[in-house]
Amino acid sequence: MKFDILTLFPAMFEGPLTESILKRACENGLIEVALHNIRDWALDKHATADDSPYGGGAGMVMKVEPLAGAIESVKEKCPGSKVILTSPGGRTLSHDVAQELSREEGLIIICGRYEGVDERVKKLFVDEEISLGDFVMTGGEIAAMALVDSVARLVPGVLGSDDSALYDSFADGLLEYPQYTRPPEFRGEKVPDVLLSGNHAVIAKWRRKESLLRTLASRPELLGRIELSKADQKLLAEVSS
């Protein structure tokens, strides 16, 4: 899968893209990430990519010409890619959204800055706007990093074991169950005996019950968004009592 990121600050991506899982995914050819400096398509010698807003007001607005040039240049090489703008007004990024986007041929991600982009960019080029939530950041670069990370890990082979993504929080609508590793006891806190039993059926039931309990305690609204099986309903009744 190809990710093309359009940004005014490409150096911000050096750390996240050159470490851990994303680094290995790029090296193994499972994903490709290309950074594009929007200023390279500016029309003046000063590489101006923003200007003051028509009608007055604070801040600056990203100019349409550099963004249009950047998008069209990338789109020419990747015609099947979906164009996304990181924006507070977009659809909130969720596991379901990441799954949906992971099935795209590629993503062209525009990192918004300042007071936003010229509205004509949205009308002419953007397929969808994506937000991390109801808060504002200094720019869309961190949102783009989160988007790439959440989508890339769902590309087959990126996590090493495709089963890893199946049991993530939100993968089935619930929060993930508690996880433990060695040592079996630390400062008086012991690993639950069930996890040491070797009985996989019992462990699976315990994990499902704990997942339901954790969701009920921390994010009860999620329970109303999924269809619970009869077994789930029975377990939920047990943890609610």
From TrEMBL:
Localization per record: Cytoplasm
CDD domains listed in its UniProt record = TrmD-like
Keyword tRNA processing assigned: yes
One Gene Ontology biological process: tRNA N1-guanine methylation
Give the keywords, sorted. Answer: Cytoplasm, Methyltransferase, S-adenosyl-L-methionine, Transferase, tRNA processing
Q: Does this entry carry the keyword Transit peptide?
A: no
Q: Name one GO molecular function term.
A: tRNA (guanine(37)-N1)-methyltransferase activity
Q: Which reaction does it catalyse?
A: guanosine(37) in tRNA + S-adenosyl-L-methionine = N(1)-methylguanosine(37) in tRNA + S-adenosyl-L-homocysteine + H(+)
Q: Which of this chain's residues are annotated to bind S-adenosyl-L-methionine?
A: 112, 132-137
- Please state the protein's primary subcellular location: cytoplasm
| UniProt similarity note | Belongs to the RNA methyltransferase TrmD family.
- Put simply, this protein is called tRNA (guanine-N(1)-)-methyltransferase
Native organism: Geomonas silvestris
